[in-house]
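hey so u asked for the seq, here:
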Amino acid sequence: MDGSFESTLRERFGAASSGAAPGMMAGRTLEEWNVAYTRVERYFHALQLRNKVVLGQLVLHVLQRAMERAPAQLQVSATELAVQEMDRIIIKWFAEILGSAPAARGLLATRGRLALLLADMPGQWQDQFLVPGPWPEEFVQAMRQAYLRAGPEFQLTRMSPRPLDLGGMAVFVNLSQTGRFKGILYSTWVVFTLLLILLFVVLHRL
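ran it, structure tokens below
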């Protein structure tokens, strides 16, 4: 992490980094925060967020939230803190714009991310992503309609058991279920055993 970026972080997160030793911030090394920054940035890239100004502001906002928690949770890595805060921010924003209960976190997070793409947030609404309301009504409606379209559609089907096609094995299976076949198999083993005994006796007499 270069000096200019370090200065930017210290200026932005002065409260979280006051009194920090050189190369440290909020109880973590600058390299740890650099890794956390990259992880969050890549996640937003995966959502097709390409505007560098918007992207930089969102990443720094997530890191600020993570740095505020960092001194009290020294056992948690900077990256994990950043990912946790990013998840909380996104789910809270989804709940507000979609009018959904944040209790269903997993469903809201999954369908909400899909709704972003269906509503073409990357193409039309990047400046609204994670921004507090009120939002343009057109954007709200696009998100809510996309959220409904992103919902799973379940279709109940009834499967009837079908007989297995064993091919040539069917003959063998049918024979194995008859007493006649069992008798033939037993007799074969008896003859085979007697032949082995006879061969053993002959070889030892030579």
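The first strand starts at residue 24 and ends at 25. Residues 178-205 form one domain.
lmk if thats what u needed
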